[in-house]
Amino acid sequence: MxxxxxxxxxxxxxxxxADKPTFEANYDTSRDFGVYQTFAWARDExxxxxxxxxxxxxxxxxxxxxxxxxxxxxxxxxxxxxDGADFLVQFTIGARDGVEVWNVPSSLSxxxxxxxxxxxxxxxxxxxxxxLAIDIIDRVEALPVWHGFASKRLTPDELNNPDPNVxxxxxxxxxxxxxx
Length: 180
What we know:
By secondary structure, the chain is an alpha/beta fold. It has 4 helices and 7 strands. The chain has helices at 2-17, 57-73, 156-160, 163-173; strands spanning 22-27, 38-41, 47-51, 77-78, 87-105, 120-138, 143-154. Helix 2 (57-73) runs parallel beside helix 4. 19% of the residues are buried.
């Protein structure tokens, strides 16, 4: 009985953690985003990688193409040169491993229900959390003016094949750009 209860608690916790990505965006409220018409990459390599798990070259190319196509779909013009661009774009991607520990009661044991409280047992879950952040920088003032990001615990399938999720996550992050 004790192992069945522990299994049920573990399953409930895992289901509760199997959620959708968290999206957030912050921006400079004093900025007039209506003046922006052109953009370029902030650097020759606009992608920063944190953690040990960076994207494959194929996924990195999908990120570049996805961000560019999203912004072009909003009417912005991509420029190869940073010099004439109104704003610059850079992004950060990566993943980190973590462990979550729960202490659950181990009181439900014996031949009948509720025999007594015998302390707790620890349940652990290893996970990988992925993040993608996109930054918009005013080129003339060299100041960040908009920042959006997504964060999600990744499943093994998402770690092995992230490409199908790239464009939907980019589109959701950039859904609040430009603000207003």
